[in-house]
Amino acid sequence: MDDQANSSSPSRRSVIGWGGAGLAAGAVGAGGAVALLHDGDTSGASSGEAGSAVPFHGAHQAGIATAVQDRLHFAAFDVTTKDRAELVRLLKDWTRAAERMTAGHTVGEGAYGGLDVAPPDDTGEALGLPPSRLTLTVGFGPSLFAKGRFGLESGRPAALVELPKFPGDNLDPARSGGDLCVQACADDPQVAVHAIRNLARIGFGKVAIRWSQLGFGKTSSTTPGAQTPRNLFGFKDGTSNVAGTDTASLDRHVWVPEQDGAGWMTGGSYLVARRISMRIETWDRASLQDQQEIFGRDKGEGAPLGKKHEHDPPNLRALPPASHVRLAHPDSNGGAVLLRRGYSFTDGTDGLGRLDAGLFFLAYQRDVRDGFIPVQKQLARADALNEYIQHVGSAVFAIPPGVRDADDWWGRALFS
Questions:
Q1: How far apart, in whole angstroms, are the C-alpha atoms of residue 90 and residue 50?
Q2: Which DSSP state fits 293?
Q3: CA 315 vs CA 97, 122, 310, 318, 329: distances in Å
Q4: Residues with Cβ within 8 Å of residue 330, at least 6 apart in sequence
Q5: What residues contact residue 154 under an 8 Å CB cut-off, 6+ apart?
């Protein structure tokens, strides 16, 4: 990463106010940023462009329709300050830092060469690394709009609802919720982790990490023609995902239009994040036939059962009634469509010798009431896959529109 400051970067003295006091508890390390103009759709990027920069500015935040990167570091934050002005200052500082990191530059004046008696502005572990298609996507949780906090009650969108408790949920409060979220995606894990680490550092004294999740092995693709990734059960899932180049589908199912109300959300989206534990050892003892009937897909090609090719339209009535494909399909859910950007995870073992592994499910939509909620109600009720999975973490966030230019910042319309 470039360690040179540009003329618009904050001074060393102002940056000491960002992060010089220390690192927020729970944050870990990697990345870089300065902005370019774009329309928010970078989905045409290929894995061969892994070292390139994804433009930061645009009508929509990058990291949604963007071609899915290989690695993830997702963090949910609690806002600890009670001062609205401090929260606004934080969002402005985060925006400026994100501009630099996504372009491959260090935060502020860099990781070395400044005052010896002050902590450096950047933590330094991404020095020399390319941008790796880093994207940073910010969201606001329902709790940020609580009465008596920051005067945002009237700005809470009707679509930002708390998710209901679904049958089978075993949610851990320590892995759920949050006032703010930051989704860092990149093709280099150190770049993604560096970005979260430095944003947490900038927020010291104003925010604290509530929970975070590392992810690898993307389980969905937003790029037409790309091979559909496999989940930890070895199956292709998300074959019919919204393409990042399909502007009509994005406008219909992902981006919030002005007529939906809450004008500050126009061009934004809503994110559901779910940590789904997968019972790997139990699944591995299931027969191939059982596995394929549970998913409703052939394990080799990924074709719907009874079809030859992965992208052949499924004959839903011919699939097992409790198969995942049949129950999750839009035709089984009143046309509900989600844009998925999930990742696999493994977090060691659970103390009983079993892998603590699963899917970190991320889904963007225009309205969770017409998107994730009806789909998950259907799946929680009857999906044969439920024998092998359990939802253990959950959060929902309003994702504001993109940062338009160097004078704009994350959430400006809400706080204005």
A1: 30
A2: H
A3: 49, 54, 13, 5, 11
A4: 240, 336, 337
A5: none
The structure tokens listed for 379 are 């799946």
Instruction: Extract the tokens encoding 392.
Output: 């253990």
Q: What is the rounded CA–CA span in Å between residue 47 and residue 103?
A: 17
Q: Is 45 strand, coil or helix?
A: coil
Residue range 169-226, pLDDT digits in tens: 999 999 999 999 999 999 999 999 999 999 999 999 999 999 999 999 888 778 777 7
Two structure tokens written together for 3 = 């360690």
Residue 276 has which token pair? 């789904």
From 219, 178, 169, 221, select the one nearest 74 (Cα to Cα).
178
- Rounded to an integer, what distance in angstroms lies between the CA atom of residue 13 and that of residue 11? 5
Amino acid at 91: L
**Dist. CA 29–CA 97, nearest whole Å:** 15
Enter the tokens of residue 60. Answer: 């929509």
3-state secondary structure string across 166-210: CCCCCCCHHHCCCCEEEEEEECCHHHHHHHHHHHHHHCCCCEEEE
Containing 349, the helix (H) or strand (E) segment is strand 343-349
Q: What is the pLDDT of residues 137-151, one digit of tens each?
A: 999 999 999 999 999
Which residues touch 284 (CB under 8 Å, ≥6 apart)?
A: none
Q: What is the DSSP letter of 102?
A: H
- Considering only CA atoms, which of 30, 52, 236 is closest in space to residue 124? 30
What are the structure tokens assigned to 304, written together? 């719907």
The answer to whether 294 and 384 have CB atoms below 8 angstroms apart is yes
Angle between helices 189-202 and 12-19 (to 10 degrees): 100
